[in-house]
Design brief:
This protein is of the alpha/beta class and 233 residues long. The protein has a single domain, classed as Rossmann fold (3-Layer(aba) Sandwich), CATH 3.40.50.300. It contains eight helices and ten strands. It has a six-stranded mixed β-sheet, sandwiched between helices. Strands 2-1-4-5 form a four-stranded antiparallel β-sheet, covered by helices on one side. Helix 3 crosses helix 4, helix 3 runs parallel beside helix 5 and helix 5 packs parallel to helix 6. It is globular and about 55 Å long. The two termini are 33 Å apart.
Length: 233
């Protein structure tokens, strides 16, 4: 059974008398443990697709499943525990809580589900990404690369089945971006999670097992970039 499945999903918005279709008849199936990249030009529907797949928004038509559970018409009350238990998010803008320390930001999702080991697991993740000495720092006292590594730890503390990342290196320089990407992939592999990432970065796309290309709301290309690179080489 795929960890994630979309069946003929469409997303449209009503703007006055006009209907704007952002995604049209998109289908995909993602196997457990995969690393998938979604790419395309601005306005192609990448972020919209990510929000639909993660249950942050509902499709206008079609059906969505996470680990066999249909979420197409799930309410926010039904989706909230699913997201906290099975889904981790990493955003370009970090979205750390300014008044919380790095350690507290990481612990927060685990505390929401009543995990008594939240502190211990946060400490282990801080050590894993080399930021133990920053545990007591507020986000304002961290660099961009450090903030994103804290965000990675927060996304992984509940050991989610799925990680959704929207341009996670977009606000970082190339050196910090490479570090964050390497740690994200390593942590994803260690936890056995599935990673779905939106990015403009061709280097990240080359590291993925599968690349989905969106153009004008349509899924136009699906390829195994690693196999393709081996063939071209």
């Amino acid at each position: 059974m795929p960890i994630l499945e979309a069946r003929h999903i469409t997303k449209a918005y009503q703007l006055g008398n006009r209907t704007i279709t952002v995604l049209e008849d998109v289908s995909l199936s993602v196997e457990k443990g995969a690393f998938i990249v979604i790419k395309g030009s601005s306005g192609s529907g990448k972020t919209t697709l990510l929000t639909l797949l993660s249950g942050l928004d509902h499709p206008t038509a079609g059906r969505l499943f996470i680990d066999g559970l249909e979420i197409t018409h799930a309410t926010e009350q039904q989706l909230a525990p699913l997201r906290n238990r099975d889904i981790g998010f990493v955003f370009q803008a970090f979205h750390l809580v300014p008044s919380m320390t790095a350690r507290e930001n990481i612990m927060f999702p685990a505390e929401l589900k009543g995990d008594r080991d939240a502190g211990q697991r946060a400490d282990a993740l801080l050590k894993r990404v080399g930021l133990t000495e920053r545990a007591g720092n507020l986000p304002s006292q961290l660099s961009g690369g450090e903030k994103q590594r804290i965000a990675l730890c927060r996304a992984l503390i509940n050991r989610p089945k799925l990680i959704f990342a929207d341009e996670p290196t977009g606000n970082l320089d190339s050196e910090n971006g490479a570090v964050v990407l390497e740690q994200l992939i390593d942590l994803k592999n260690e936890h056995g999670a599935t990673l779905i990432m939106v990015t403009h970065n061709p280097d990240i796309a080359n590291a993925a097992e599968l690349v989905l290309t969106l153009k004008d709301g349509h899924l136009t290309k699906m390829l195994n970039s690693q196999s393709n690179t081996r063939k071209e080489g």
